[in-house]
Amino acid sequence: MRRRGEHGVIVLTALFFVAFVGISLNYYRLAREQRYVEAAAAGSVVTVIAGESEGTIYDREMRPLTNAGTRFTAVAVPSALDREATAVYALDRSRFYTDFDCGEPFVFDCRADTPESDGLTVFELPVRYSGDMCAQHIIGYISQGEGVSGVEYAYDRILRTPSGVSSVTYTADGFGRVLIGGGKSIVRSKAANGGVVLTIDEEIQRICESAGRDIERGAIVVTNVRNGDILALASFPDYDPADISSALTDERCPLINRALYSYSVGSIFKLVTACAAIDQGCGGFVSRCGGSIAVGEQVFNCHKLDGHGVQTMEQAMTNSCNTYFIELSKCLDVAEFRECAYSLGFGREMYLCAGIAASAGVLPTVNELLVPAELANFSFGQGKLSATPLQINQLTCAIANGGKMPVLRLIQGISPDGESVPNEKPAQFSEVMSAETAVQLRDMMISAVADNPRSNAAPKNVAVGAKTSTAQTGRFGGDGEELCHAWITGFFPAEEPRYAVTVLIEDGGYGNDSAAPVFREIAGKISSAG
After folding, report:
1. CA-based nearest residue to 516, from 456, 462, 466, 469
2. Quick check: 393 and 232 in contact, CB under 8 A?
3. I need a surface site. Which of 144, 357, 385, 445 has the fewest CB within 10 A?
4. Residue 19 lies in a domain
């Protein structure tokens, strides 16, 4: 009996011990939970990033060239939402269900009318590149969150900042579980409001891109002759920033900004020869064109093989007579002739912003031009001479602006709010020819269109001045014909010039046939738009 009693005491003691341990563990659990609650109250949080915004690239009128579209995303807390009722607003329901069933807060693309609640926070975020973008070569593109080319590269640090993150932060328990009753903190980034403001005019840029729609390879530049602002800069072919791999394998090399590359110039350079001649007192020079001229052992042909007859400078410019300008160059001081070309921007690199600079091209040296055949080529824009569409456009600005050549500008400045551009720099000019010389050259360009019944450059709604080129390349096509670049550069309105337009078409043939109609369309549409 005694042993049975002792055994019962042992069992009873054991039961009390087990109970004590259970109570202690439960107390310990409650203490832990209380500690987690206190930790939550002290600031344990869960932050979910809804998306990132980048600074906007604006045109001169503060119209967004990037971030022009918007999308809606929502941060969802599954424990606080009805699964099916919320799924109605998801753009991708299959993915929504997968993420919802994981039980953790997640982000999904949603409709614009998605209602907010404690467990659902909606954000409107900018779309960087839209399908209707323009000025792609200027804007450039992004790879792995960094600007790679164009303005995206030049202003990468300004356009992409830590303040671009939009997020929602919830109070959480010690296990990281969202406590809906604890409230939430929402950050809606305003980074997209600020950004870089270009001199580009979106409407004019679109006119140029439309007018050049059939250009296989080439470039168009439009500037304000009065201050040098680049209003449009289009390069062809274009490319899709969302499909850079295709652009890299395209044999047309669409990633190249052809407005920045140098090409043989051709007859447009006759404007420079005429400028040098007027400044050296040879503006009244008269010569007879017989269709060809011998310089040493080399024969140079005019495009009119039977000749133009006796030509004044204005007639020779209208007829684009090669032999006249070859004879004229013989009267010029070679060093002063070359210096005139240099002062007009030839042989000088043009810097627009970091990563965007136009080639200097090739300007022959004085020693090279002392060779008679080289000087002859130079006089009508052939030989070693090469220049970019931007350089040709800047020359046109100088003529149209009374001899004052503006520094071409692409960047207007930085805007903190998308409304203003503090500390914008004034336009810069250099006087490269007298006002009298500029007037004579301007009149020649007006006559080259108005007095030439074969010109394809004249719109119906505005008078223009222009000069075309058919620049030889020394390359030949499969038919044995030499490939030539087609050029035109000009200004309008003729009497009070405001715009300068330069068109280059690689291997485009005759300037009057392929480049002039593009110029005509651009000038006509800009004038109609007011």
Report:
1. 456
2. no
3. 144
4. no
**CA distance linking residue 356 with residue 333, whole number of Å:** 35
Domain boundary among 165, 182, 198: 198
**Nearest by Cα to 35 from 151, 174, 208:** 174
Rounded Cα–Cα distance for residues 213 and 525 (Å) = 15
Name the pTM for this structure.
Answer: 0.88
> pLDDT tens digits for the chain (530 residues)?
444 455 554 545 555 554 544 544 454 444 433 333 333 344 588 999 999 999 999 999 999 999 999 999 999 999 999 999 999 999 999 999 999 999 999 999 999 999 999 999 999 999 999 888 999 999 999 999 999 999 999 999 999 999 999 999 999 887 778 988 778 999 999 999 999 999 999 999 999 999 999 999 999 999 999 999 999 999 999 999 988 999 999 999 999 999 999 999 999 999 999 999 999 999 999 999 999 999 988 999 888 888 999 999 999 999 999 999 999 999 999 999 999 999 999 999 999 999 899 999 999 999 999 999 999 999 999 999 999 999 999 999 999 999 999 999 999 999 999 999 998 889 999 999 999 999 999 999 999 999 999 999 999 999 999 999 999 998 998 888 899 999 999 999 999 999 999 999 999 999 999 999 999 999 999 999 97
How far is the C-alpha of 349 from the C-alpha of 358, rounded, in Å?
6
Contact of 56 with 194, CB cutoff 8 Å: yes
In a domain, 13, yes or no: no
Domain with 68 in it: 45-82+90-198
H or E element in which residue 372 lies: helix 372-379
- Extract the tokens encoding 110: 């949603």
Among left, alpha and beta (phi > 0; psi -120 to 50; other), residue 255 is: alpha
CATH number of residue 139's parent domain: 3.90.1310.10
Instruction: Write down the residue that tokens 């149209």 correspond to.
Output: 400
